[in-house]
Amino acid sequence: MASAEEVAKAAERRDVRDRWLLSAPALLVILLAATGPLLIVLVYSFLTPGAYGDVKWQFSPDAWISVFMERDIFDDTLSVAVAHVTIFWRSIKLAVVTTLATLALGFPTAYFMATRSEKTRDLWLFLITIPFWTNLLIRTFAVLQIIRNEGIINTILLKLGIISAPIQILYTDTAILIGMAYVYLPLMVLPIYASMEKLDFRLVEAGYDLYATRFKVLRKIIFPLVKPGVIAGSILVFIPALGAYVTPVVLGGGKNMMLSNLIELQFGQGRNWPLGSALSITVMVIVMLALLAYVRNAGRSGVRHG
Amino acid sequence: MNWKTMATAMGLALLASTGLARAEGVLNIYNWGNYTSPDVIKKFEDKYKIKVSITDYDSNDTALAKVRQGGTGFDIAVPSQTYVPIWIKEGLLLETDPGKMENFKNVAPEWANPEFDPGRKYSVPWAWGTIGVVVNTDAYKGPADTWGIVFNTPDELKGKVNVVPEMNDVIFAAIKYVGGQQCTDDKAVLKKVRDLLVAAKPNWIAMEYNTIEKMGAGDFKATSDWNGSALRQRLANAAIHYNYPKEGFGLWSDNVVVLKEAKNVENAKLFQNFIMDPENAAGLSAFHRYANAITGSDKYMPADMKDAPEVVIPADAKPKGEFQKMCAPETQELYTKIWTELQK
Which one of A54, A169, A223, B243 is least enclosed by Cβ atoms within 10 Å? Predict the structure, then answer.
């Protein structure tokens, strides 16, 4: 006779099995939808470019070689693909600086929000989400209207007589950074706020009671406790910033390519789909490596701080 | 551009999901954005009781790639002359033989038998134009009929010049400026082109398409541009002048073709014939601000276009114009490399 315990176990096993069966269709769809297109990209990266776009079904490692190496079209020497490295580096640098800028702005904002009374917090949260209501492109053009030569900032400064000629902000790296920081700021604020809200401010008081300076309280108490939020926010900002397309083009003037522009060129006027595919996969690998390194690093130090 | 491509893709997805109406009295046009006169379309709809729907694309490459995948549901597309031979060669077009259509007699002789579609077996002229240099004469008063404005920028314009980032157009202009032939694969010439472009770039403020608004607002004081765009800029600001570079400038034309997979062939043919009518051709021009290739359309043209220097090429500049061709794939690869190096 089966004991009550065995019956319970059997029921549990059945339960687990049913759950898997019931979620199988959804899992299958997600698996196919997520990996299918990626597999196509991977396969395409090993094919020969068609004469006018598309691919020829003929194996060729050329795309991968030209991601990293370039044959000089004039003296025919093979060397490291300086152009690609420069463009990758520019995009990575922009993503890192954007992450730091949003962190510098987002951390105090989240702290401010979390220290309001419970009732007003919702209002602040609501205000932070307002920019999400409009399209990214429209927000970017709004920034353009503010910083252009005949825009709001320059007009006011000129009227006040502070400057005699408009300051060229549009089409500079500063313009790109302003736009990126503005666009991605909510993505940083929200996760930090989520951690900050759970923070037990009695610990902060305890710190002060033990004669910790304000900076020490921030560094030793607040920051370690909201670290998961900072990590989540940084990831949420870094990844889309790396692939940013619209903002650098609209505010930077498109003179210097970003990763996304380089990839787009291959699928458009460059007519080299395999190279575009290979570049896309390279970006994914870089993001994955950066994430792994970041999470491992953060995880280790997280344990140390308890 | 990406967001436009996205919008197009979403539009396509929507079309695919709802299933295009295949009934009589429908015509699905796939054309460049902001290019199709709503008035002329309305007239066509009223005359033939055909419902027209228009989907936008933003580049020849996008259009070609989409149509090549098949199943688009489009009947008509409007590729540029450099691309028409590819569409023909890839078997994407239906031979509608516009050369035998009723209104074909109106097509100007120089457009009746073009190199890209001998005998007009597939295509009907939609618009044609030039690519030159636009300068705001408030900022620069010197001679501007040269690509030197862009490639060897005068001091007054340094840091105020825009270049429209059409790879083939920019390389074409640079080759002309150093004295080469279009589509050249001569390394000596291309080296000069590369060095010229790389040296010129620090003087540019941007590489953007949005010239009408930016020239108007004064963000740019000069730009490379299409003539119709230049005309719209001048109408907004009389100081803005269009110039035909003396080193040679590119001529282009866009052409209405019927797709092999078209479901509404007869309606598409009606449309091809319809736009070769002088009054209708003038109506199209009034909207997109480019010349058409239809004789007799002059008298229906808007007054501000009849003698516009952007539309009517001056006699002394005419010989410098040259039809842009599609370069060989290997040559194109060289150009892409130069282009990447320029923007790295």
Answer: A223
Two tokens at B323? 């039809």
ipTM over 0.95: no
* Least Cα separation, residue B219 to chain A (angstroms): 7
Decide if A249 and B64 are in contact by the 8 Å CB cutoff: no
- Which B residues, 14 through 53, put their C-beta within 8 Å of a C-beta on chain A? none
Distance CA B206, CA A231 (A): 35
Q: Say whether both A116 and A56 belong to one domain.
A: no
Domain residues for the domain of A60 are 4-70
Rounded to whole angstroms, how far apart are CA atoms B275 and B294?
9
CATH number at residue A165: 1.10.3720.10
Kindly state the tokens that stand for A28.
């299958």
When divided into structural domains, chain A yields a total of 2
Q: What is the mean pLDDT of residues B119-144?
A: 96
What does the alpha-carbon distance between residue A181 and residue A188 come to, in Å, rounded to a whole number?
A: 10
Q: Would you list the DSSP string of A255-286? A: SS--HHHHHHHHHTTT--HHHHHHHHHHHHHH
> Largest Cα–Cα distance in chain B?
61
The answer to whether B207 contacts chain A (CB < 8 Å) is yes
Which of B1, B90, B205 lies at the smallest CB-CB distance from A171?
A: B205
Q: What does the pLDDT look like over B172-199, one tens digit per residue?
A: 999 999 999 999 999 999 999 999 999 9
B70 touches chain A (CB under 8 A): no
Residue A48 has pLDDT above 50, yes or no: yes
Report CB contact under 8 Å: B168, A265: no
Chain A residues within 8 A of B338 when measuring between CB atoms = 73
> Which fold, B2-128+252-306?
D-Maltodextrin-Binding Protein; domain 2 (3.40.190)
Shared-domain flag, residues A295 and A155: yes
Contacts of B329 in chain A (CB under 8 A): 51-52, 271
The answer to whether residues A149 and A46 belong to one domain is: no
Q: 3-state class of A244 per DSSP?
A: coil
CA distance to partner chain A, nearest, from residue B336 (Å):
5
Whether the CB of B217 is below 8 Å from some CB of chain A: the reply is yes
- Residue B306 near chain A (CB below 8 Å): no
Indicate whether B43 pLDDT > 50: yes
Provide CATH 3.40.190.10 ranges for chain B: 2-128+252-306, 131-250+315-343
Q: Which residue of B has its CA nearest to A148?
A: B219
- Looking at the fold, whether A107 and A228 belong to one and the same domain comes out as yes
Contacts with B59 from chain A: Cβ below 8 Å: 268-269
Q: Into which CATH architecture does domain B131-250+315-343 fall?
A: 3-Layer(aba) Sandwich (3.40)
Separation CA B286–CA B303 (nearest Å): 10
Q: Tokens in use for A214? A: 């304000």
This prediction has a pTM of 0.82
Cβ-defined contact of B3 to A137 (cutoff 8 Å): yes
